């Protein structure tokens, strides 16, 4: 299977490689995501230029939002990814995770509102508000995270391991945001249907 070069050029500022040019591990990841979603997302096609480095990045990234893995509930993990993407101004990731968060919460409208600005969503639970504020601060001003911020997560019942998982999610999505913003990855048509 190869990527249509005409279309591929329009999804990224840089060249989008043909699938047959990619390392086997990355091709397997792309095939798996395509099978899961029913389409190949533009982010993975654009990021594929990194070859083996992208495959390693994906090995770290993808399990963090696997609904069947993790210490934190899936909805919490999607919330962290969505707020991080919103704070970083990544339109692709914000749109992508707005839909995923809406699905995880069982309320697509709520997921979209959180992706626009969680601060304007009155009906957030105290847990959601605390996690959102933590993600927002860590994503943009990591040096300003205080011991009180960590205590607020412990007050939610998070163990140190779960707090570290939250940090991993924010950090890896902040990195993905920077890749997407730099590449100007075009949002998938599926985000708008």
Automatic annotation (TrEMBL):
Top-level taxonomic group: Bacteria
GO molecular function (one): peroxidase activity
InterPro entries assigned to the protein according to its UniProt record, in alphabetical order: AhpD-like, Uncharacterised_peroxidase-rel
Taxonomic source organism: Cryptosporangium aurantiacum
Keyword vocabulary terms for this entry: Oxidoreductase, Peroxidase
Name listed for the protein in its UniProt record: Uncharacterized peroxidase-related enzyme
Coiled coil regions in record: none
């Amino acid at each position: 299977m190869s990527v249509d070069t005409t279309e591929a050029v329009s999804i990224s500022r840089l060249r989008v490689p043909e699938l047959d040019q990619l390392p086997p591990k990355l091709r397997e990841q792309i095939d798996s995501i395509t099978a899961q979603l029913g389409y190949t997302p533009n982010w993975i096609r654009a990021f594929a230029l990194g070859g083996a480095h992208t495959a390693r990045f994906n090995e770290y990234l993808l399990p963090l939002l696997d609904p069947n893995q993790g210490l934190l509930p899936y909805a919490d993990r999607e919330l962290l990814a969505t707020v991080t993407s919103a704070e970083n101004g990544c339109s692709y990731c914000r749109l992508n995770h707005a839909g995923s968060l809406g699905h995880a919460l069982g309320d697509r409208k709520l997921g979209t509102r959180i992706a626009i600005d969680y601060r304007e969503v009155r009906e957030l639970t105290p847990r959601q508000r605390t996690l959102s504020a933590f993600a927002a601060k860590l994503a943009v001003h990591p040096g300003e995270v205080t011991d009180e911020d960590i205590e607020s997560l412990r007050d939610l019942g998070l163990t140190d391991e779960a707090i570290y998982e939250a940090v991993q999610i924010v950090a890896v999505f902040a990195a993905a945001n920077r890749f997407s913003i730099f590449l100007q990855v075009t949002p998938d048509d599926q985000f708008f249907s």
